[in-house]
Amino acid sequence: MIDYSPRLFTSDAEIAHLGEGLLSRTLARGEWTHEAHLAATTYLLLRRPDIDLDRELPAIIRSFNESIGGVNSDTEGYHETITRAFLRGVRLFLEEADPDAPLHELVNDLLLSPMGRRDWPLRFYSREHLFSVAARRNFVPPDLGTLP
After folding, report:
1. How many Å apart are CA 19 and CA 41, to the nearest integer?
2. Which sign does the torsion angle of CA 115, 117, 119, 123 carry?
3. Among 25, 37, 40, 71, which one has the highest count of C-beta atoms within 10 angstroms of its own C-beta?
4. pTM of the predicted model, to two decimals?
C-alpha cells in the first residue's frame, strides 16, 4: 500500500470556500486537489440539499474544469466513473459519521478513511477498466468487486 498523507483542514470555512468556489467557478486551479474534491462533495451533500448531486455534479465539475482552462475529453477532465465511485464512498462514510461533528473534522476523518484514499476505487476496478475511455464518459460497473 502506498503511503498516503492527505492535506487536512483546520476550519469549516475552508470547506465552505471549496464547495461554494466549485459552484461559482472561482477556485484557483491549484486549489482543486483530491482533498478539495472530497471536501466539496461533503459540503454539497451536507450543506446544499438544494442541489441534486446525482443529476447536477457532472455538469458542475465539467463547467469548473473549463473555467480554469481545462478540457473534458477522452483523456482528461471529468471522469464519470471515478466521480460516481467517490460520491458513493462519501455517502457511505457519512452514514456512519457523527452528524454533529464540525464539517472540517468530518472531512478530515473521511480523508483518513479507506473511502478518502486516492486509490479507493481501485479496490473495485482494475486500472485498465477504471481508466478506460468508456469509464471516463459513462459510469461502468466495477470489474473486481461490488461497490459498497
Report:
1. 7
2. negative
3. 40
4. 0.94
